[in-house]
Design brief:
It holds the Pfam family CHU_C. By secondary structure, the protein is mostly beta strands. Helix content is about 0%, strand content about 45%. The protein folds into 7 domains: about 100 residues, Immunoglobulins (Immunoglobulin-like, Sandwich); about 270 residues, Immunoglobulin-like (Sandwich), CATH 2.60.40.60; about 80 residues, Immunoglobulins (Immunoglobulin-like, Sandwich), CATH 2.60.40.10; about 80 residues, Immunoglobulins (Immunoglobulin-like), CATH 2.60.40.10; about 70 residues; about 70 residues, Immunoglobulins (Immunoglobulin-like, Sandwich), CATH 2.60.40; about 80 residues, Immunoglobulin-like (Sandwich), CATH 2.60.40.
C-alpha cells in the first residue's frame, strides 16, 4: 500500500548554521553504567560511555583501555580499581551533517566495559558506594568555566549495597547537535531504569580532580572523593550554564532541556539522574555535556516531502495533527522515501535519536518507535526542515504462535513426534515447512508423525488481520543409548544372598530395573543388588535426549538354605578339666569357636565366660547354614596370695590375700593359724610352712593359691668379748648366725671407721684388724640378717 504525504509537511527551522570551526579536547562528555550480570549473583558489568573528538591529535584519543575506581561513601575508602577494555567505537550521527562537515566535526561514541565481582562482605554498607573515572583536561575554549584548559573531567555514579538488587539508570544516546543563537530548542536528555524506579533529574556543577593537570598516566586510577567542583565563569552558574532567553531549564521529571541560546560559544553543563524506590533514594548517575552555539544564516531548505510511503497489507493508519499512528504486524516492513536530490542531506531519527545507518532519502522501518527526518543542505551549513508530522509505529496486537515442544526437540530412532502450533483464538490458517521447503498437505495446527531431523517452521496467519506469526523448532534425530547387562559370575544364589547386576555406564544416563517385567522401586543406579529369583533386565535412558533402550534378560535362581539343629551345651566350671561332646544335625558340618577341638569343647582351654560355638553345614547345592550355641564356662573365684614371707621363730604375721567376697575359705595345713576359715588369718608357724588357700564360690567353682612362710631362729649378740688367748670368750660368737648364710656384719670404731666387715658370719671375729689387735674399747656394729628382717645394731666392748 502506497500513500503520498506531500501535502502534510511544514517547514521546521534547523539548528545548525555555518560559522568558524570550534575545537575541543578529545573527550567531550560521557557517563558510567553499572548493571548486574544475568544469573550471576554479586557480579556486575561496568560500562564507561565517552564522546570523543575523532579529529583530536591527542595521542590518548585512541586508547583501548581505562581504569575506574570503587569507593565507600561513608569514609571514601578505596575498595577496587578495575580495568575496562574497549568494546565498541561508533561515529555519532549529526542532525545537520552539512554543518558538521563545514566545521570538520567528527565525534565517536566509545564504550568500555568489564565485569567485576562485588562481595556482600565488602559491599554491604547501608550508606552505599560510588564509582568514578577522571581525565584531564577539558577544552580551553569552554567559555563558561574558569581555567577550563586545566580542569579535569570526572564521571561519577552512586550505587547501593549489593544486597539491594539494582541497575543504574541508562541515559539515552546523545545526538550530534550544533545550536543556533536565538533559536529555541528542546532536548530529551532523560534516562531509562531497568528496575522501573522513579527517576528525578537535576543540574549539577561539574566535578574536577585534585590531581595535578599534566603528566598523568591515562590508565591511572581515580582519586578519592569528595571531588571539588569547577569554578563558574562570571555570569554563569549551575542553574545558568549558558546564556539563554528564556532561561535554561531542566524538567526534573522527564530530563527534558529547554533553552534559546543568546550567545555563541562552547559551554559545559552536567545532568544528574537520581533513582528512587518507595520514596527512598537508591543511587544516581552524572553525565557531562558540551554544547556548541553558533550564529546561523537564515537560509532554509525546502520543506520535507515524502514521495513514497509503502505499507504491507493489513497496516492500520490513523492520521493525527502531529503524529501519524501506524500499526504493523511483527516482521512487517515499512519503507518511507523523501525526494532524492543531491542538494539535500537527510538524517532519520527514532524517538528523537539520530540513526547512524539512516542518512539517505529512504528508510526501512521494522521496529516500533516515533520516526521523523531532518532535511539539510548537503554542501553547506544552513537551517533545517523536518516533517510536520511524525510516524508513530507500533506493533499490532496479535497472538504469538508457539510450537510445542520447542524451540528444540528431539525424536528417538524408531519413534515419531507431534509438533503442535499453539495460538490463541479462532480464525487461523497454518502452513508448515521443513528446512525451508513447504510440506505437502501440512495445513493443520498439529504436524504429526515427525521422524526426521530438520528445522520446522509454522506460519500462523490471522484470517482477519492477515498478520503472520512464526515459530520454529529444531528437531534432532537422537540415537538410542546402549543397554547392556553384564552377566555376573554367579547366577544361582542361596536364600538370603545377593548378587550385583551391572549395566553399562555413561554420562547423562538414568536406569530402571525390571524383575519379571515389573519395574523395581529405587532403581535409578547403574548397578543393583538382587536377592530374589526372577528374570531381570534394565532400561537405560539418555536424559539429554529422552531416548531409552531395554537390555536383554538374565535369569537369577535362588536355592533354599539347609535346616540345621545344634544341641545345647551344659554349664562347666573354668578350672575343671572338662571336655564336652558337641552334637548337631545334619552331620558332616564343622564346629568352630574358642575351646573347640573337632567335635568337642574343652572348658579349660576356652577359659571362663560365655563362648559362642558355631556349627556350619554346607548342602550339595553349595548353600550353607549355621547354628550357634553358647558354652558357659563359669568363672573361677579369685584367690591371690602374695610372695613368700620370712619371720623369726616365735613371731606372727597376717596372711594377706585378694579373694572373691562372699565365698568360703579353707587354709591347709591349719597348724599355726588362728582361724583357717578366714580370708586373712594370722600365722604363727614354729617352722617353715607352705600354706594352701582354697576359695570356693557359691556355684561350687573354686580356685587355689599358696604361700611359703620361712621361719628362722633368733640370734643372740654378746656385748663384749676377751680376745686374750686364754681359750675362753676369745671371739665374738653370734648364736644361730649360721642360719643366716647371707647376713652382713659391719663393726665401726668410735670415729666411724670400719674395723670389721663380712658377708655371712662363718668365722667369729677375733678383735683384730689386718691381723693386728685392736685396743680395748667399745665398738659399734650393724648386722643385716635377712632382707625381710629388721637390721640389728648395738655396741660390743673388747676386754683384754
Amino acid at each position: 500500500m502506497k500513500k503520498n504525504y506531500k501535502g502534510f509537511w511544514l517547514i521546521l527551522l534547523g539548528i545548525l548554521a555555518c560559522g568558524t570551526p570550534l575545537r575541543a579536547s578529545h573527550i567531550l562528555g560521557g557517563n558510567l553504567v553499572l548493571t548486574p550480570k544475568d544469573n550471576l549473583k554479586g557480579t556486575f558489568t561496568v560500562y564507561v560511555v565517552l564522546y570523543y573528538d575523532a579529529q583530536s591529535t591527542d595521542p590518548n584519543a585512541e586508547q583501548t583501555e581505562l581504569t575506574v575506581s570503587f569507593f565507600r561513601k561513608r569514609d571514601n575508602v578505596r575498595l577496587n580499581d578495575l580495568g575496562l577494555k574497549l568494546v565498541s567505537r561508533e561515529p555519532l550521527a549529526f542532525t545537520n551533517p552539512g554543518c558538521a562537515a563545514s566545521r570538520n566535526l567528527k565525534i565517536n561514541v566509545v564504550k568500555f566495559a568489564a565485569d567485576i565481582q562485588l562481595p556482600l562482605s565488602q559491599y554491604g554498607d547501608p550508606q552505599g558506594y560510588y564509582i568514578t573515572w577522571e581525565r584531564c583536561c577539558r577544552s580551553s575554549t569552554v567559555g563558561n568555566i574558569q581555567s577550563a584548559g586545566t580542569s579535569a573531567l570526572v564521571l561519577y555514579g552512586e550505587f547501593p549495597p549489593v544486597s539491594t538488587q539494582n541497575s543504574s539508570p541508562v541515559f539515552s544516546p546523545a545526538n550530534g547537535e550544533v545550536l543556533c543563537r536565538d533559536k529555541p530548542y528542546t532536548f530529551a536528555s532523560g534516562a531509562t531504569d531497568p528496575d522501573g524506579d522513579e527517576l528525578r533529574y537535576r543540574l549539577e556543577t561539574p566535578f574536577t580532580s585534585t590531581r595535578p593537570p599534566y603528566g598523568i598516566d591515562p590508565l591511572a586510577p581515580a582519586t578519592a572523593g569528595p571531588y571539588p567542583q569547577i569554578e563558574w565563569g562570571n555570569g554563569f552558574s549551575m542553574t545558568n550554564p549558558l546564556p539563554s532567553s528564556p532561561a535554561f531549564t531542566l524538567d526534573s521529571k522527564t530530563g527534558t532541556i529547554s533553552l534559546t541560546p543568546s550567545k555563541t560559544g562552547l559551554f559545559v553543563y552536567r545532568v544528574v539522574v537520581e533513582e528512587y524506590r518507595n520514596g527512598h533514594k537508591v543511587g544516581e548517575v552524572h553525565r557531562d555535556y558540551q554544547m556548541v552555539v553558533v550564529d546561523c544564516s537564515n537560509e532554509n531548505p525546502p520543506p520535507v516531502a515524502l514521495t513514497e510511503a509503502d505499507f504491507p497489507p493489513g497496516t492500520s493508519v490513523a492520521e493525527g495533527d502531529s503524529l501519524i499512528e501506524v500499526g504493523i504486524c511483527r516482521g512487517d516492513t515499512i519503507r518511507l522515501k523523501a525526494e532524492v536530490d543531491s542538494r539535500w542531506a537527510y538524517q532519520w531519527q527514532r524517538d528523537g535519536v539520530n540513526l547512524e545507518q539512516a542518512k539517505g532519502a529512504a528508510i526501512t522501518i521494522t521496529q516500533e518507535g516515533v520516526y521523523s527526518v531532518v532535511k539539510t543542505f548537503a554542501d553547506r551549513c544552513a537551517n533545517t526542515s523536518t516533517l510536520s508530522e511524525k510516524f508513530g509505529v507500533k506493533y499490532r496486537t496479535q497472538a504469538q504462535v508457539e510450537i510445542t515442544p520447542g524451540p528444540e526437540a528431539g525424536v528417538c530412532e524408531g519413534s515419531s513426534l507431534d509438533l503442535k502450533a499453539n495460538v490463541g483464538g479462532p480464525g487461523w490458517s497454518f502452513r508448515w515447512e521443513k528446512d525451508g521447503t513447504d510440506l505437502d498437505g501440512a495445513s493443520l495446527g498439529t504436524l504429526s508423525g515427525v521422524r526426521e531431523a530438520g528445522v520446522y517452521l509454522v506460519k500462523a496467519t490471522d484470517v482477519v488481520t492477515r498478520c503472520v506469526s512464526r515459530d520454529t523448532v529444531v528437531v534432532t534425530l537422537n540415537a538410542l543409548p546402549p543397554a547392556q547387562l553384564s552377566i555376573p559370575a554367579v547366577t544361582q544364589l542361596c536364600q538370603g544372598d545377593s548378587v550385583q547386576l551391572q549395566a553399562n555406564q555413561g554420562s547423562n544416563l538414568t536406569y530402571a530395573w525390571y524383575r519379571d517385567d515389573v519395574v523395581q522401586p529405587d532403581s535409578l543406579r547403574s548397578s543393583r543388588f538382587v536377592r530374589n529369583a526372577g528374570i531381570y533386565s534394565v532400561q537405560v535412558k539418555d536424559t539429554t535426549t529422552g531416548c531409552f533402550r531395554r537390555s536383554d534378560t538374565l535369569r537369577i535362581v535362588v536355592n533354599p538354605l539347609p535346616e540345621v539343629l545344634f544341641d545345647s551345651i551344659p554349664l562347666v566350671c573354668g578350672q575343671a578339666n572338662t571336655r564336652l561332646a558337641l552334637v548337631a544335625t545334619p552331620a558332616g558340618g564343622t564346629f568352630s569357636g574358642r575351646g573347640v577341638e573337632g567335635t568337642t569343647f574343652d572348658a579349660r582351654q576356652a577359659g571362663g565366660g560365655s563362648h559362642i560355638i558355631t556349627y556350619n553345614y554346607q548342602a550339595p547345592t553349595g548353600c550353607s547354614a549355621t547354628a550357634t550355641r553358647t558354652a558357659q564356662v563359669l568363672p573361677a573365684p579369685r584367690a591371690l596370695l602374695g610372695s613368700g614371707k620370712t619371720i623369726l621363730q616365735g613371731d606372727s604375721l597376717l596372711l594377706r590375700s585378694s579373694v572373691t567376697e562372699e565365698a568360703s575359705y579353707a587354709w591347709s595345713p591349719p597348724l599355726g593359724l588362728n582361724d583357717p576359715t578366714l580370708a586373712q588369718p594370722i600365722a604363727s608357724p614354729e617352722q617353715t610352712t607352705t600354706y594352701l588357700l582354697r576359695v570356693t564360690a557359691a556355684n561350687g567353682c573354686f580356685s587355689e593359691s599358696e604361700i611359703r612362710i620361712v621361719v628362722l631362729p633368733p640370734v643372740k649378740i654378746p656385748n663384749g668379748f676377751t680376745p686374750n688367748g686364754d681359750g675362753t670368750n676369745d671371739t665374738w660368737e653370734i648364736e644361730n648366725s649360721s642360719a643366716y648364710t647371707d647376713c652382713e656384719v659391719t663393726v665401726f670404731n668410735r670415729w666411724g671407721n670400719t674395723v670389721y666387715a663380712s658377708k655371712g658370719y662363718h668365722n667369729d671375729w677375733d678383735g683384730r684388724i689386718n691381723n693386728e689387735e685392736l685396743p680395748n674399747a667399745t665398738y659399734y656394729y650393724v648386722i643385716k640378717l635377712h632382707p625381710e628382717l629388721p637390721v640389728k645394731s648395738g655396741s660390743v666392748t673388747i676386754f683384754r
